[in-house]
Amino acid sequence: MMDANQVWEVDETVTKMRRLAEFDPLWIEEPTSPDDILGHAEIRHRVAPIGVATGEHCHNKVMFKQFFQADAIDYCQLDAARLGGLNEVILVTLMAAKFGVPICPTAVALGCVNIPNISHCSTISRYPAALRAVCLSMWITYTNTLSTR
């Protein structure tokens, strides 16, 4: 997996990922601005079979809906803390399931899930129990996704 941290433009991403394809990456994470949904769609189609992972900077379900509808992402990296609540997380999770896009939460979300004892993490310990359960579920989904590669 590779992370561009939102700094490349569409053509630059395609050029760089074609050069890096020999290393067989699973995905390129955040190749361009998180607001550029159509740019992500173009990147996804031009660099396949390398996947596109993004979403950690999406702040609501509408952005995710547009990513899914535009066929712009292969891996949904929602950040439960950034989405601002359990309802948004559940809605994005359901949309991802509808579109067949696996959820691989951002490292921020993963860092909050202090496996095996999640209660000691300073961030997640402030979450309601239901949101902690969602984060744990995302961690399990993430590890299962990696084990199938």
From TrEMBL:
Tell me where in this chain the Enolase C-terminal domain is found: 1-126
The protein's matches in InterPro entries, at most eight in alphabetical order, are given as: Enolase-like_C_sf (IPR036849), Enolase_C-like (IPR029065), RHMD-like (IPR046945)
One Pfam match: MR_MLE_C
Alphabetized, the UniProt keywords read: Magnesium, Metal-binding
Enumerate the SUPFAM superfamilies for this protein.
Answer: Enolase C-terminal domain-like
Per its Swiss-Prot or TrEMBL entry, what cofactor is needed? Answer: Mg(2+)
Q: What is this protein called?
A: Enolase C-terminal domain-containing protein
Which source organism? Vreelandella olivaria
